[in-house]
Amino acid sequence: MPKRKRGITGDAASRREAIRERERRVVETEEERSRRLSTMAQRGQERRAEETEEQRNRGLAKKRNYRGVASRREEIRKHERRVVETEEERSRRLSTMAQRGQDSRAEETEEQRNSRLSDMAQRGQERRAEETEEQRKENTFWGEQYAEADTFFCFTNLMSEIRDFFIKTLDHSASGIGAMMKRLMDMVEEHDFNIWQRLQMQDIKPQYFCFRWITLLLSQEFPLPDLIRVWDSLFADKNRFQFLLCVCCAMIIWLRDKIMHNDFPSNMKLLQNFPNVDIHCLLEKAVELQR
Fold it and tell me: How close are the terminal C-alpha atoms of the chain, in Å?
């Protein structure tokens, strides 16, 4: 009679043992399962208690290293997403952010704005009253030292509001330069139709003169003292760009008599080289148009 191979017999025995073990687990009661899990937990606690300080520190270092690697990977992914962002998507995202900022400022009532500015001025006066002569000198020193940084900060805040004027893809959007010039000419048509008609007849397009007025906030049209007075009114107005259009409209209406009698070259030269005027009267006219 041929002998059985031991390997096959051993495999069959281990399978039978595994089947019995599974059957024992199936018939295991809830109490036995709880006891077994409790024993496993107790053994884990004992192992952790026996772990040396060095081993524990090594384990914590591994965890921190893993977290650091994960954080760096996430930063790399964010950087890659920013890199693949197209110029149009970036412009759209920045435009949305600027629009939200304008909406939040527009929702603030005049009374809330005045109250906020009054509180800021009051706190500034209290701080100045409490500071000593030595502190005042030190603050003056630091103010002069960081004047350039403060100026740049103010400049970037201003440019964040008018940046849409310089993005070609947004020229014809609601906040683009094309739409701003159209709103200006609509305002001129509304308040003085004859001037608007004269400019149309001579084919004097707004791009020839008011493009510079709007994008540079009139910085090349007036002497510096007058410009500072204009900017003082402009930046104090919560709807500053609407007021800017009112100032530009007032400038055109101010030249009404000359525009109505001049030919094309003379009117172009007049609008591109705005003459000296009484800036206070011009601003009063702009406020009148704003109403």
Answer: 118
Span 78-135, pLDDT tens digits = 666 665 556 667 667 767 776 676 666 666 666 777 777 777 778 777 777 776 666 6
Taking the mean position of all CA atoms in its chain, how far away is CA 183? 25
Single out the residue of 249, 247, 221, 251 nearest to residue 235, CA to CA: 247
Give the position of tokens 């109403």.
Answer: 291
8 Å CB contact between 238 and 230: no
Instruction: Please give the pLDDT value at position 194.
Output: 94
The residue to which tokens 């791009």 are assigned: 207
> What is the 8-class DSSP label of residue 2?
P
- 196-212, pLDDT tens digit by residue? 999 999 999 999 999 99
Angle at 193 between CA 190 and CA 199, to 5 degrees: 115
Least confident of 116-125, 140-149, 225-234: 140-149
Please identify which residue in the block is written with the tokens 């199936």.
26
Q: How far apart are CA 215 and CA 219, in angstroms?
A: 9
pTM over 0.70, yes/no: no
d(CA 213, CA 7): 97
State the Cα–Cα distance between residues 139 and 145, nearest whole angstrom: 10
DSSP string, 144-168: HHTHHHHHHHHHHHHHHHHGGGG-G
Distance CA 231, CA 162 (A): 14
